[in-house]
Amino acid sequence: MIIAFGIALALILVSIVVYMLLSRKLREKYAILWIVIGLVVLVLGIFPQLLEWFTVALGVQVPSNLLFSLAILLLLGVSLHLSWEISQAEDEIRRVAEESAILNAELERLSRRIDQLSMPTPEEPETPANPAA
Amino acid sequence: MLELIMNESLGRVLVIVPAWNEEANVGNTVREIRSRAPQYDIVVVDDGSTDKTARVARDAGATVIPLPINLGVGGAMRAGFTYAQRHDYDAAIQVDADGQHDPAEIVRVLDGLSSADISIGARFADKGDYEVKGPRKWAMLFLAGVMTNVAHTRLTDVTSGFRAGNRRAIDQYVRYYPAEYLGDTLDSLVAAVHAGLTVTQIPVAMRPRAHGTPSQHPIGATIYLLRSVFALGLALMRPRKATGGSAA
């Protein structure tokens, strides 16, 4: 029963990742880690004796301890990666915000200049040559 | 007389005023800068204000760089320095919008650029009656001590925002000017010194804020102390970048 549940979970995880990749909701660089995690869960689900074998090989007392340690380690890695990505994204947002603000200032300067050029200055009474008349 | 000549050799100067929700103060600040130092261009960087800061500044006669989101003083200043770099200014000086920095002292702080790349208007250099106490004072003394060692010149007020920079400093600031709290003053200065720029300080008198009060609460001041130690520690541990003054 629990084995079937494990396999189902792994399959759902992998298919969600593949779906998100196909519909461009997830970028490759984040997907690889999740596909690896999904495949590991799938393999362990199909061959539970692998876990026991690793437990003995690594000298861990209880199989579940090995599983939990690996899970915590993986999630730690994922969250650290996300923090790093978001810091980088914030930095990029900052550059873009600065750039857009500077361009806004330039735009305003230029449109004011255009207004000055296209409008007759109020100091001058009337332009002598009036082509419309 | 000598000062006057030196100041003229500076060429075009941009006054950068970072402002966040300062509609009560920014108008007066801009007008005062214009009357005290009419030869300089003024740009107000509106740091995502939700009030009428941008319009008040524009009406007072400043160019406004309106940031779409609040980035903090560091982001506002880098936008200002980038603007200065693109418009080929020879020097730039930061003047806070809240009225703490006396526009009458702008010329004096700029004079410091004749002997260094960065000139800091410092509060504690035996002038003025600005007083702090408790953890905030310890923080300032500690930071000043460390920075004096780093910069190989006596600095007493390294968190002062009243600072001017020449072309080399502007280029350096555009390359690296962190947005983090305290990073804008401490980290940027450490990075500039590590890049081979020189620093000097000019004693100035600071004025109390025109509107609103700064935090002098002991808990707030202690957090300030810890954060500044953290920011400075990180800045000092970073590997020095090779002096790339000519690389644009």
TrEMBL record, chain A:
A Pfam family assignment: DUF2304
Keyword Transmembrane appears in the UniProt entry: yes
Stretches of the chain forming a coiled coil according to its record: 86-113
Presence of keyword Nucleus: no
Source domain of life: Bacteria
Keyword annotations from UniProtKB, A to Z: Coiled coil, Membrane, Transmembrane, Transmembrane helix
Transmembrane regions listed in the UniProt entry: 6-23, 30-51, 66-84
Protein name stated in the entry: DUF2304 domain-containing protein
Organism from which the protein derives: Agromyces cerinus subsp. cerinus
Taxonomic lineage: Bacteria, Bacillati, Actinomycetota, Actinomycetes, Micrococcales
TrEMBL record, chain B:
Domain Glycosyltransferase 2-like residues, every copy: 15-173
Transferase recorded as keyword: yes
Domain of life: Bacteria
GO molecular function list: transferase activity
InterPro entries, sorted: Glyco_trans_2-like, Glycosyltransferase_2, Nucleotide-diphossugar_trans
PANTHER family named in the record: RFBJ PROTEIN, UNDECAPRENYL-PHOSPHATE 4-DEOXY-4-FORMAMIDO-L-ARABINOSE TRANSFERASE-RELATED
The protein's name: Glycosyl transferase family 2
Naturally occurring in which organism (per UniProt): Agromyces cerinus subsp. cerinus
